[in-house]
Predict the structure.
Amino acid sequence: EEEKMKVEKTVWNGKEGYLLQNESMEVFVNPEDGMNIYQMDWEGRQMIAWEEERYQRKATYGVPVLYPTPNRTEDLKIQAFGRQYDARMHGLVKNLPFEVKAAEADGQTALVTGVLLWNEAQPDYSMFPFPSTLRITVKALPDEVVWSYEVENCGEREMSYGIAVHPYFNKREQEVKITVPAASVMEMTEEKIPTGKLIPAGETVPDLRTPALVDSLSLDHVYTDCQAGAHAEIFYNDCKVKLEATEEFGHIVVFTPKAPFFCIENQSCSTDCFNLFAKGFVRESGLQTVKAGEKKSGAIRFVFEK
């Protein structure tokens, strides 16, 4: 069994990374680049593909980690605890180096764990001056990859945050379909900022509770009010992917550009979560809070089936 699961150090684009391998999965993780999963192959199929061109122009690629402000914020500002702070699209950590705390394999799993200390040593700390530790583990199992996180509040008062992944799924074929188990879609401004109002899925934006062809969609929308225990799915001709997430991931952003990829992004919060919360849209925002000295954790599982 030992031979079937392995972790090996490798270099990609001049950055040291880790290849997690078992009989069905090959997963390339780069701790130096925000714990990004650059590539995910299952049974020889490239499910998540690296895009050199996007990397070069500093766009997102692979599976970036979005924290503490996933997605957009109105006017690149957030309101938090009565003060205003500058924000950045997709958060502050997506390209930061994580310190590797574990890289190991046993008979069942191969994993790498990285830790980021968010404190005054970080150049952008003033944008989010709430000390925390973010721990991300990427684990390869037979036919599945588990992405898990833990946020520890290292400060002396309550802290709020949002966390998400932004996987770039390879379209692979014309017939690929998706489902998202959400009853509502967030109404958006022209700048793609949620107003706080929820619209029943199907009214102005497609209801994805029944399978829809990715090529028929033109979405960059936040789906929510997800059915308990249900999960988004991707249907290719020869396989399917299930995105099983813990319950705090109550928002799913669906992004279907005219491109060789599409994104289904499990988020613990809405787009613009801090500002929505400040406006009184507490439930709709999905903003997470963690008390001083305490931790919160969760996971997203990519499950592959024939």
Remarks:
- The longest helix spans residues 273-278.
- The radius of gyration is 19 Å.
- The mean pLDDT is 95.
- Residues 119 and 131 are 5 Å apart (CA to CA).
